[in-house]
Amino acid sequence: MSETSPHGTVAYDIVDNVAWVKFNRPEKRNCMSPTLNREMMDLLDALEFRDDVGVLVLSGEGTSWSAGMDLKEYFRENEAKGLGATRGAQREAYGWWRRLRWYQKPTIAMVNGWCFGGGYGPLFGCDLAFAADEATFGLSEINWGILPGGGATKVAVELLPFRKAMYHAMMGENIDGKTAAEWGLVNESIPLAGLKDRVAAVAAVLLQKNPVALKATKDAVRRVGEMTYDNAEDYLIRAQEAANSFDSEGRKEGIKQFIDDKTYKPGLGAYDKNRKAD
Ligand code: ACO
Fold first, then answer.
1. CA–centroid distance, residue 268 to ligand 1 (Å)
2. Architecture of 3-207 per CATH?
3. pLDDT at position 128, please?
4. What is the pTM of this model?
5. Average pLDDT score over residue span 139-163
């Protein structure tokens, strides 16, 4: 039985150090209302530094991952209240997507169904993404008369080649999980029946890695894209040295287990992070 947020818009289970978080408005196809955005931020806060959470997976209850922003509660009702309400709702939505982009723990989007518009924010916020072949992705904004805002255009341009991004944004046509994987919106597409097992296997691999190195790595991948080569080189030196101050022994143990103990090969898998240097 999953735990749910006070208003029930998000749900989660923690199993074997993986937090399985769900959008939980299946009757509304998990579209993002202000309440959901608030409750998701609260849940991310609550889970981020728990010792029993090593990886966070974001999926959706029912047939949908997320049908984007709630057109009634997020757009219409806030617009009726005025600019302040609109900006406040934007801050809450964009806020938790930003938290995801820089989350302490590795994050995986498990896209089980519909993924529209505003859903691209948390999709990109997750470090990795796996979709069901049966999932449906679309920038449907153009179909109801707006541009793909809330970062969705940026996500398309970050993840897709220019022509595909333009077509995707302008045409309002949907693609399935397989096409999303071919285009690079997600890492892989798998039949829905095997999706959770595949994501669990990926999470299990991540759980074996040094968590300080994982956080440094995921931040580096997001940061260096907008740097010159020289700036990236410098940033990566500083980032590793900063990571060393959080975990001064990890990499030494990694070298020792390979060079001295000969208990593993880094080219073939991770060192045993539970064994500490003598
Ligand atoms: N905003 C508000 N309500 C929504 C949304 C949404 N984004 N998506 C679904 N719902 C509601 C429906 O209004 C309906 O409510 P009701 O039961 O009170 O009538 C309920 O969820 C179920 O939706 P159906 O349309 O009946 O479900 P169906 O499975 O037939 O279709 C689909 C699913 C294709 C996802 C459809 O609901 C849809 O097109 N939703 C909108 C998708 C979209 O364009 N989202 C906005 C993207 S742009 C942005 O995010 C900025």
1. 45
2. Alpha-Beta Complex (3.90)
3. 99
4. 0.96
5. 97
